[in-house]
Specification:
disordered C terminus, single chain
């Protein structure tokens, strides 16, 4: 989940199983199971989910996922609301020094395939999802 505040709200929501089940079936046509990041089958599964969320959020908001001019709302929410401990994304990852306080996560790499400007050089083995290098910090908690 690319937003800590949405992740926290979702965790609270899934405790109300009947309402959550009804919501999922109505909104998604099926029940969505929760998989904590610690229980994911591979280290890249959370990154793959972040890339999928990026691609879908960009599509909904008509943003070019490979050359975004702004962050999708889901990726900007924690910074907009000044959520303590939130997942903060930067579009221009070169503007902040890696690991600098408050530098957050690098959003410009999420939608890139290899060869994007500023790409970290790492790439996903599954380029069919539009994902690629994760910039060394691709996304939030992965819950």
């Amino acid at each position: 989940m690319p937003s800590q505040v949405v992740d926290d709200a979702w965790h609270e929501f899934i405790l109300f199983t009947r309402q959550y089940d009804k919501f999922c079936r109505h909104g998604f046509g099926r029940f969505l199971h929760h998989t904590p990041a610690a229980a994911m089958s591979s280290p890249t599964q959370a990154s793959d989910g972040i890339r999928r969320a990026w691609r879908l959020a960009c599509a909904i908001e008509k943003i070019d996922p490979k050359k975004p001019e702004r962050l999708p709302r889901l990726f900007a929410l924690d910074a907009t609301l000044a959520i303590a401990g939130g997942f903060i994304y930067q579009l221009d990852c070169l503007a902040s020094a890696p690991g600098a306080a408050g530098s957050g996560f690098c959003a410009s790499h999420i939608g890139c395939s290899s060869g994007c400007s500023g790409d970290s050089g790492s790439s996903s083995s599954d380029s069919s999802d539009g994902g690629g290098g994760d910039g060394g910090g691709c996304g939030g908690g992965g819950d």
